[in-house]
């Protein structure tokens, strides 16, 4: 069982809560003069993050994702929350013309993005690809039927969903807050809060040690997608962990990172991920969405 404890620190003009969830450091910044309110908000945020992790992590053996992935072709009826995430993933699959696909997680059997130069065998990738493709899935809410050997993975949308849920819960308890789960962020509470939260966007390859951009965020969400930590490097060529489920291989000519600001963290994460999946057309895609974004290619 992972360590599930929280810590709270009093800063100059806010409280800072910390814990771990979803394999990420999680931070909660809370503006209130009431220590009990701050503790209650931190507890609510951490509990919600852990609840979502327990329910939707592919690493758990007794949750809804495990039931689906172990179904071996049988139909599984899911609850409303799970159905909502599946509906969202289905919409993203259509919007991306198949590039976003929650059934593509099985490709991790071939790919280990550990910074080494070990590329998988082409036949291995091709064999696994037969178990990928949302178009092969029968989804008629609330019933989901995967073909034998197929699996789903909510990793591409689950953390952003958790951030927005946590921000809404904290906003009921404090004046203004900033939720940060491993670099996916959302504000909660008064939209005219002052001063704005200052968010640093790290430089690729700095492993979180150096920020080259400072963003002032008073409302909405912020999300970043990139290959700073998960990649392969072979003969001078960098292979991003963002895979094209249509080929089973990394997206070609994708930016090093894309950061998007939007009304919610879920929306920001969706746009950042879809932009990365566009490869060389990432900037054109984001321009067409009329959102604020920051894109790095080196």
From TrEMBL:
Signal peptide: none annotated. Keywords: FAD, Flavoprotein, Magnesium, Metal-binding, Transferase. Its cofactor is Mg(2+); Mn(2+). GO terms for molecular function: metal ion binding; transferase activity. It holds the Pfam family ApbE. It catalyses: L-threonyl-[protein] + FAD = FMN-L-threonyl-[protein] + AMP + H(+). Belongs to the ApbE family. This is FAD:protein FMN transferase. It comes from Woeseia oceani.
């Amino acid at each position: 069982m992972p360590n599930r404890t929280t810590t709270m620190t009093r800063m100059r003009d806010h409280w800072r809560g910390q814990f771990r969830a979803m394999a990420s450091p999680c931070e909660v910044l809370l503006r209130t003069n009431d220590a009990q309110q701050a503790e209650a908000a931190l507890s609510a945020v951490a509990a919600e993050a852990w609840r979502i992790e327990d329910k939707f992590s592919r690493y758990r053996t007794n949750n809804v994702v495990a039931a689906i992935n172990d179904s071996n072709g049988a139909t599984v009826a899911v609850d409303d929350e799970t159905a909502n995430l599946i509906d969202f993933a289905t919409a993203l699959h259509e919007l991306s013309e198949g590039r976003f696909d929650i059934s593509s997680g099985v490709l991790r059997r071939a790919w280990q993005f550990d910074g080494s130069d070990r590329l998988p065998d082409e036949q291995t990738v091709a064999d696994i690809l037969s178990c990928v493709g949302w178009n092969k899935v029968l989804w008629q809410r609330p019933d989901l039927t995967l073909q034998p050997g197929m699996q789903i993975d909510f990793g591409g949308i689950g953390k952003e969903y958790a951030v927005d849920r946590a921000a809404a819960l904290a906003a009921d308890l404090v004046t203004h807050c900033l939720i940060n789960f491993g670099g996916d962020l959302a504000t909660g509470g008064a939209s005219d809060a002052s001063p704005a939260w200052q968010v640093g966007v790290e430089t690729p390859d700095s492993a979180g040690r150096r920020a080259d951009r400072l963003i002032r965020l008073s409302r909405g969400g912020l999300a970043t997608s990139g290959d700073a930590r998960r990649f392969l490097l072979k003969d001078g060529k960098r292979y991003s962990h963002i895979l094209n489920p249509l080929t089973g291989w990394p997206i070609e000519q994708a930016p090093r990172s894309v950061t998007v600001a939007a009304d919610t963290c879920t929306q920001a994460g969706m746009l950042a991920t879809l932009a990365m999946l566009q490869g060389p057309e990432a900037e054109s895609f984001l321009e067409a969405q009329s959102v604020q974004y920051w894109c790095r290619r080196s």
